Amino acid sequence: MLIADDQVMIRDGLAALLSSDPGIEVIGQAGNGREAVEMARRLDPDVIVMDIRMPEMDGLAATAELVGAPDPDADPAGARPKVLVLTTFDLDEYVYEALGSGASGFLLKDASAADLVNGVRVVAAGDALLAPSITRRLIGDFARRRRHQRPSPKATAALTPRELDVLRLIARGLSNAEIAGELVLAEQTVKTHVGHVLTKLALRDRTQAVVYAYENGLVG
User: Fold this and answer.
1) Which domain holds residue 133?
2) CB–CB of 94/52 below 8 Å?
3) Dihedral over Cα of 9, 15, 17, 20: its sign
4) Residue 162 to residue 31: CA distance in whole angstroms
5) What CATH number does the domain containing 131 carry?
6) pLDDT of residue 17
7) d(CA 58, CA 203)
8) Could you say which of 91, 109, 139 is where a domain stops?
C-alpha cells in the first residue's frame, strides 16, 4: 500500500502503524497528490491512504486521476488501486467529492489504530467504508439534496426484485451478513446478488452502489 500526506510526521506515523500489521506492507510514501499518482503508477499498490489537502495536486484530484479514468500507459489487465481518504475534515462537500472521485472509503484522522487497519482491509477487499461518525449525517443529507421523487425506470429495469432489495439494504449500510439475516438468505447468495447488482449497473464497488441508490430514489 501507499501513503500520501504532505506532513512527514503523519506519513511516518501511519507507515509505522500500518506496517506493524503482518498483513499490510507499505511500499511507498508521497508528499503530494502528483507524487501519489506517479508512485502509484510505478509501484502498483493495492490501497492508497490519501490525504485531501496537499500541495501541487490535492487528494481528490489525485484519486480521480488514478481511479476515475484509465491510465493509457497502464496494463489493461491491471487493477486500479483502492483509495481510502484520511483527513482531519469531515465536511460533507469533501465526502461527496471523495466518493465522486472514486474513493472507496473515508476516515477521519482521529480514528483509532484498529479502525485504520480495518479500513485498509475493508477497501482492499472491495468493500466501502465511511467513518461511523459521519455516515448517518451524510446519508440523510445526501437523500435530501439528491433524491429524486420516484425511482428511475432505467435504474430498476435491469435488476430483479431480490437484487433491488439487496441494493436498498446496501444503501442503508448493511454488511452481507446483515443483509442475509434481513432477507433470510445464505451469505454466499447475498454475495452473488451484490455481484450481479454491481455488474448490471456498471458500478465499481459498494460505495458507488450507495450513491447510485440515493441518486435514483431507491431509498429515502
Assistant:
1) 2-139
2) yes
3) negative
4) 46
5) 3.40.50.2300
6) 93
7) 25
8) 139
